Each structure stands twice: as structure tokens, then as C-alpha cells.
Amino acid sequence: xxxxxxxxxxxxxxxxxxxxxxxxxxxxxxxxxxxxxxxxxxxxxxxxxxxxxxxxxxxxxxxxxxxxxxxxxxxxxxxxxxxxxxxxxxxxxxxxxxxxxxxxxxxxxxxxxxxxxxxxxxxxxxxxxxxxxxxxxxxxxxxxxxxxxxxxxxxxxxxxxxxxxxxxxxxxxxxxxxxxxxxxxxxxxxxxxxxxxxxxxxxxxxxxxxxxxxxxxxxxxxxxxxxxxxxxxxxxxxxxxxxxxxxxxxxxxxxxxxxxxxxxxxxxxxxxxxxxxxxxxxxxxxxxxxxxxxxxxxxxxxxxxxxxxxxxxxxxxxxxxxxxxxxxxxxxxxxxxxxxxxxxxxxxxxxxxxxxxxxxxxxxxxxxxxxxxxxxxxxxxxxxxxxxxxxxxxxxxxxxxxxxxxxxxxxxxxxxxxxxxxxxxxxxxxxxxxxxxxxxxxxxxxxxxxxxxxxxxxxxxxxxxxxxxxxxxxxxxxxxxxxxxxxxxxxxxxxxxxxxxxxxxxxxxxxxxxxxxxxxxxxxxxxxxxxxxxx
Length: 535
Known about the structure:
Blueprint: H1 2-13, H2 17-30, H3 33-43, H4 58-69, H5 73-83, H6 86-93, H7 106-114, H8 122-135, H9 138-149, H10 158-169, H11 173-179, H12 188-194, E1 211-212, E2 214-215, H13 220-224, E3 230-234, E4 239-246, E5 249-254, H14 265-271, E6 278-288, E7 293-294, H15 297-304, H16 311-316, E8 319-329, E9 332-333, H17 339-350, E10 358-360, H18 369-377, E11 386-391, E12 399-400, E13 405-409, E14 413-424, E15 433-442, E16 445-452, H19 458-470, E17 472-476, E18 479-482, E19 487-492, E20 494-497, E21 505-508, E22 511-515, H20 527-533
Parallel strand pairs: 1-12, 2-13, 8-10
Antiparallel strand pairs: 3-11, 4-5, 4-6, 6-7, 6-8, 8-9, 11-13, 14-15, 14-18, 14-19, 15-16, 17-18, 19-22, 20-21
Helix pairs in contact: 1-2, 1-9, 2-10, 3-12, 5-6, 6-9
């Protein structure tokens, strides 16, 4: 634990990418294989236990630290509100042990100490946590508490971890990134396979790292040059996935590195007709067969939640895959080829199918950028989010690389809504009210329709925080109900019907565009306006 805590401190103190990579390489070179595997997992965003293996809830930790420190619960809560990070709060409220216990490996603390009591009765879990607090000095106790409360959040991305592993091992970073996809349990064996110079059988079950587009702002004619250099496609509103057809099997991988096998059996069945040794990159969409248009994303969510969909689900919510790239053909990696060549390969592969459930995502034809803008303006009518702009000569890269792939989304829909509730934020904003709930009029009643956390600058946040404190009507735990006076213009991507919301609608990706000081609450939008936009 001591060496991992030292790594955490070194990473936390540095803001330079090269310094962080050097710290990671130094750690991996000297760490036990088991500890290195856990470090790799944790620094890539993994969590000890996860949702299915409970070690300690936030409320339990606050109660236990109150008992251990002798501080009243209200002071613990106030300290947490001031610090903004529970792991740091727990560390600060506890004294260092009179005698520090001998150093134990990171893997032992996790597997033999924490995971050993996961899902056990509270008294056993409490005893394990208190034992850690009583044995570890502050620097190691902070890491211990970070393991209890979730991700480390130390300013290191998964890509930086992969770069450090590549430098340490001498392997190509693309191979390491591919092997790290999906679910895996940290162990010396996993680390050995990850760093193996040989091709492994498991490599054939792994997807490639996804290439991500960057948002385009401004005039594409000025940013991107001649339109002939670019391939235009619709930006679909579905689930990005890779479809793997290898060794007689089909695997579906989401961009979130989750296997979707079994949830979309009609796609898996259709994919069996694809040639062996191919990998498609595309979009999974709920499809309106009658209108030949994609359905709202909420329709697709009903399928995602069912690991074994029944006949009624398959009938009521049919799906399609629209493929826009081919990453592998006959077992050969095509990612280094220009996009226009990969698309030609894709057309040939899809051409072997006679099944509407897997199709090629069509090009969008435009002679110039004004015509492309006109097509983009029609996006919502087609049930899409805008246009994708991809350089015809671009290779398929890993992660978000600016310059070759852009998402040119349609301008957001807007509404004027009234601030109804506010809650304090987290981290550096833990002492300010920065999480807001907004409502619109349904007759003479304001109905909540959206929550937003972003869009105001620091000066506006401070001003609104003062107003919220001075105009609170009621308190419900950490939430304040405020006078219905402040109006804000919100931007959002779409409105979907929802039986889970009191208003009957769900607003997608709401954010604050501006504070409408010029508009009284009585002139805010009506619920009927949003209902008319709902898909």
C-alpha cells in the first residue's frame, strides 16, 4: 500500500502529462504483478467491489467516522460539505495511529481485507473499515478511503495508463488498449496476458478501441476546407457498437465496453451470414418499420434493459444496425487504410447480406457546405442528431483525436423554464448551490421538467447562490425549494415521452443557455409546448 500511496501523491501533485507517465512507469517497474494489475484497473476507472459487492455506503462511512472520532454527526456532515470529497473528509477527521502496522501489498488490502467482507453484515464490514483506519497513516488512509468511496480521481486517464504500460512493456499501445477493453478481474495472470508479446486466443474476442468524433463549432467551410475532402453521414441517435464475426461466433460490444450478447438476438442471427473474420463499427437503432425511420432513443432503452427479450419485445421494438465502418476483413486489420477504402470494403461485405437488420449507413450527398447545412437543418425531421463529417483519407484511430472526425449537431431546442429547486454541488462547488431543477407551466401549476448543472459562469453561480439562500421556501434534506421567480433559457437535444416522470416527458441533455433577467416567471413556457415536441 505504501508504494501505491506514494504513486497517488506523485500523480496528484503533478499537472504535466509526461511527469504522470514517468510516475506510472516507475511504479509498474517495481510493483508486484498482483499490485500492478490492481493499480492498472483502479487508475483506469475501475472500482473495488462495484455495485454488486457492497463494502460501505456513504452514510455508513459518515456514521462510523463519527463514532471513531467522537465528533457529532452534524460536524461530520458540515465538514463533508466544506471539503467536498468524502475520502478526504474521512482522512482529515481521523488521527494517525500511535503505531503504524507493517506494510501490506495493495492487492492484499483489496482482496483479503475489503472484498472479503463485501455484502457481509454491517458489523463485519464496519470492523474491517475501522481496522484499516487504525493501522494506516494519513497518506495510505486517504487511498484506503478512496477505494471505499469509488474511483481514485487523480487526474489520470485510461489512455495515460495505456501509454505507460506500452512504454514499460515495449508493446504497441493499440494492442494494450484492445486487450484492456471489457470486463476483467485484476490478477497476475491478467497482467501477464495483457503484456504478452504473442497473439492470444482472447485477442480474437476483443473489439478495437473506438474512434471518437469531436464536436464542430463554427463554419465548416472555414474549419475544414473543401467539402470534397469529407464524407458526410447522418449522426444517428442510438448505441454505438462493434459487431464481431469471428471463429463461428458473433459478439456485440458497446462503446461503453459492455457485451450486449443475448439482448439483440435478431442482430446476432443476421450477423451469422456475414463473412468470417470481419468487424463492423456502426449504430444500433430501434426502428420504425412502417415509416422507415429510427425511433426515439427511449424505445431502444427498453431493449437494453432486457438480457433475454421475449417475443412481444422483439415484435414491438425491432432494431437495426447501420454500419459505417469496417475495421477487419478476413482477419486482416483495416484500420490503417483510408476511410474511403474501408467504406468500399464495407459495401462489399454488406452486399453479401440479404437482411434489412444490418445495412450500410448511407452517405449524405451535398455539393457544398451551404447545402450540407440545409441537410443538417432537416436532421430532427429524420430522427437524427445532425451530421458526421469524416475526412476521406483518415485512418481509424483510437479514442478522441481532433481533426479527422467531427460531429456537427443540429442547434439545440430551447425553452424558458422557472427555477424550482436547488441543491449543493460536489467538489469545489460543494459550498454552492449549483444543481438546479426547472419547471414549466401546466395550467396555473409549475411542473418539473429538467435538471441542469452547467451553463452559468462563476459570477452568475455566486449571484444565484446568494439569491437561493435569501429566497428559500422549504428544505427537504439537501434540497431547497425556492420562490418561483427566476427564469432561465435551457437548451436540449430532444423531448421523449416518459411514464416515469410526473410531467409525462423526459428532456435529453438539458443545459443552461442564459439567465433571463428580462422575463417574468408568468411568461415561461407551457408543458403543452414540450408535449408537442415529444417523439
